[in-house]
Structure to design on (349 residues):
């Protein structure tokens, strides 16, 4: 299948996806607030934040070239040209429909510091993110490519497309490509973009629908001795500006952070405390062990939910309908279901 499916904005889905790419020591976590305390808590809990993925409802003029020239506060949002873009900043144009989720993740992964390590065994117990051989090879192969060819390379990768499409919803009926309906202005169309810090002290918005990366501001890497808080504060301003722009008509937004695997950070803390001579019965170590158990349970929950997403429930549904029809209760059950749905709609109004 050459088409790319749409996938759910969920940390369990995205974490499973990057792991299927071969990435180690990283995960996605959802952010419900981006005030100072929330950002500092994020850094304290995960130790490292590689980038942010922002989902918003795409509207005409919200994602194309015409929409991003200038903000109301006068800050330039013009995409950078090739000569203005740092040589080591990976930016790919989106040339494949529905690939924006994976492309946003790749924008962070391929721009993260220390991500050239593809030796999984050498860093199995380390803190650094391991990019893996597949993505390391992709980055090396496309280094000299212009942004459109980088997008073509991503779209042409069978491994990346297969991993992405593993989260495709099971279709009830097969449809010819010519009969697939194109989204209209009345449809909800969502788009993913990424925010990443660069070593030059600039935070970039990476949107595959743009002709180039967009500088959203600078940050002080030494501020408060907290490596990630300054750049997160800069990215926050850009995200808040986007949200406020649509606040009157839209509330459907989602924000996730690509962070260090929390289990890695917890194990590192336990190791340091143990090396300091504290006993396993120490209250702090026991608290960390409970956190580790919770994270392992979270991973198992994500695994179970992803299996349900991938499962084909159509045979079960067809058999249930046959059983209801055979018992003579199908019509009554359908009527009750319709009434329940109508009542639910009224509550939402």
């Amino acid at each position: 299948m050459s088409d790319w499916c749409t996938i759910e904005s969920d940390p369990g889905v995205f974490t499973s996806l990057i792991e299927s790419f071969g990435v180690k020591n990283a995960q996605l976590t959802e952010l419900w607030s981006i005030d100072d305390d929330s950002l500092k808590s994020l850094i304290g809990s995960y130790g490292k934040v590689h980038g942010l993925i922002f989902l918003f409802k795409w509207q005409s003029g919200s994602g194309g070239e015409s929409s991003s020239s200038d903000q109301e506060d006068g800050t330039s949002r013009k995409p950078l040209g090739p000569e203005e873009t740092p040589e080591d900043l990976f930016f790919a144009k989106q040339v494949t429909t529905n690939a924006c989720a994976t492309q946003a993740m790749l924008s962070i992964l391929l721009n993260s510091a220390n991500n050239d390590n593809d030796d999984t065994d050498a860093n199995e117990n380390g803190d650094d993110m391991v990019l893996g051989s597949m993505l390391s090879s992709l980055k090396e192969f496309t280094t000299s490519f212009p942004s459109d060819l980088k997008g073509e390379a991503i779209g042409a990768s069978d491994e990346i497309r297969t991993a992405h499409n593993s989260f495709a919803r099971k279709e009830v009926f097969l449809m010819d490509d010519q009969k697939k309906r194109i989204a209209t202005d009345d449809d909800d169309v969502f788009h993913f973009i990424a925010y990443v810090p660069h070593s030059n002290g600039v935070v970039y918005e990476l949107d595959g629908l743009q002709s180039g990366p967009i500088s959203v501001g600078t940050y002080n890497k030494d501020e408060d001795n907290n490596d990630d808080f300054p750049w997160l504060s800069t990215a926050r301003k850009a995200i808040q500006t986007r949200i406020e722009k649509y606040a009157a008509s839209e509330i459907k937004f989602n924000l996730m952070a690509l962070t260090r695997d929390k289990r890695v950070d917890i194990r590192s803390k336990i190791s340091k405390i143990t090396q300091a001579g504290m006993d396993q019965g120490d209250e702090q170590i026991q608290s960390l062990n409970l956190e580790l158990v919770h994270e392992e349970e979270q991973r198992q929950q994500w695994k179970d939910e992803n299996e349900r997403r991938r499962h084909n429930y159509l045979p079960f549904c067809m058999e249930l309908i046959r059983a209801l029809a055979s018992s003579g209760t199908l019509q009554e059950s359908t009527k009750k279901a319709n009434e329940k749905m109508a009542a639910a709609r009224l509550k939402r109004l």
Summary: The mean pLDDT is 83. The beta strands are 26-31, 49-57, 190-197, 202-206, 214-218, 253-260.
